[in-house]
User: What shape does this take?
Amino acid sequence: MNTKEIMDIALELAGLEDIPADSGVIVEGKDIKKVLIGVDMETPELLLGKELGVDCVISHHPTTGKPRVKFHKVMEVQIDRMVKFGVPINKAQKALKKKVGKVDRATHVTNFDRVASAARLLKMPYLNIHMPADKITENYVQSFIDKRFEDKPKATLKDVIEELKEIDEYKNAIAGPVIRVGSEKDYAGKIAVLMAGGTNGGADVFKAYFEAGVGTIVCMHVPEDVIEEVEKQNIGNVIVAGHMASDSIGLNIIIKELEKKGIEAIKMSGIL
Assistant: This one.
């Protein structure tokens, strides 16, 4: 198997046709039989991969190259997600615009060749799969939640937490599902799982969801300023499912498919 075929497997599982801007093959490789894969794989992990004799290193997060610099471009897919939950498309675009600008400016100044140059020097095939894995997680968790609560209009946030912990990755996580806005007895209402599209869209995006009728957002992580703003809005709840645990769901599904193809996968760096 080669690096392109590995990426194609992830794209197919995520229902994507093209490689998103936050993902890519940094150093191409072929005849891959053993991979080292983790959430954050940088120069130390490339060196470890060399030591372990793997044929390729796979990172989830975009730590280098074009996927790092162009990371903000995938955030526009959040508009489609918002529209799906009833947010008008023009409102969705404006709600997201501020955060996209912040992410663009932050990634523009990074040393985008640091890890890529190490991979080239080590002659280590290297790729990162961000959006496809997150999309797989988002689809999986949304489908799980929808099935568990389709006939339970008075489900509470405590109920949601308990059901999420039935998923192995959340059950086994040190940092698992927690309520960040709301309380255990609060009704969950309509639940939106937001785990793909680069990074958290910010308080304006959350407000747009709540105003469109969403009662609870389930996400991977949420910054303190967004928590404070959502509490002031007083119209919705936020459950943080857990970052490493959520990333692990999509990555484990990809790994299982690679293993079916005969690839040996060594998991590390955050994968549960």
User: Anything to note?
Assistant: The mean pLDDT is 96. The two ends are 25 Å apart (CA to CA). The longest helix spans residues 89-108.
